[in-house]
Amino acid sequence: MRASTLLTGDLVQSIGTLGEALAADASSGKRPDFGMRIEGRPRPLAPLLRDEVYRIAGEALHNAFRHAPAVRIEVDLRYDPHWFRLRVRDDGRGIDPAMLDRGRAGHYGLAGMRERATLLGGTLAVWSELDSGTEAELTVPASVAYGKANAC
C-alpha cells in the first residue's frame, strides 16, 4: 500500500490550506476570495479515498485559480449519512461547453478528475456557463466513503 499524501489526516484542513495558499499566490494581482463550508458532522474517510478526494479538490482549485479569473472560489464538503459530497465552484468566466466534453489538447485535468471519481465508486459532474462560473461536484456513496475509514 502507499502512504497518505496529505500532511495531516484532516481533509478539511488540507483543502483549506491549499485554497488559502492558492488565493495568496494569485498571479493576476487580484486575489479571489476563498471560502469553505462544511455541512454535517465530519467523519473520517477511508485513507486512500481521502487522498483521491484531496487530489480532485486540488485539481478543481488549481483550475479555478489559474483559469477562471474569479472573484469568489468556494469549496463545500458535505458529510451526509447516505453520501459524501465535495463541491468546488467559482464565479469566473466559465468553460467553453466543447471543452467540458472533449477537454483541451494536452490537458488532462478534467479527464483525470472523472477517472479518479469513477475509481472511487463515485460520480463527478461539472457544470459551467460562459461568464457564469464553473461547478465541479464529486459524490461518493456513504458505504464507500465511510465504510472502510479504518483501512490503510
Number of helices: 5
Mean pLDDT: 86
CA(first)-CA(last) distance: 7 Å
Biggest pleated-sheet summary: 5 strands, mixed
Detail the topology: elements first, then pairings.
Layout: H1 11-24, E1 33-39, H2 47-67, E2 72-79, E3 83-90, H3 97-102, H4 109-120, E4 123-129, E5 133-141, H5 142-145
Parallel strand pairs: 1-2
Antiparallel strand pairs: 2-3, 3-5, 4-5
Helix pairs in contact: 1-2, 2-4
Structural features, described:
This protein is an alpha+beta fold. The chain is built from 5 helices and 5 strands; from the N terminus they run H-E-H-E-E-H-H-E-E-H. The protein has a 5-stranded mixed beta sheet. Strand 4 (123-129) and strand 5 (133-141) form a beta hairpin. Helix 1 (11-24) packs parallel to helix 2 (47-67) and helix 2 (47-67) runs antiparallel to helix 4 (109-120). It is globular, with a radius of gyration of 15 Å.
Give structural attributes.
five-stranded mixed β-sheet, 152 residues, alpha+beta, single chain
In short:
It is built from five helices and five strands, in the order αβαββααββα.
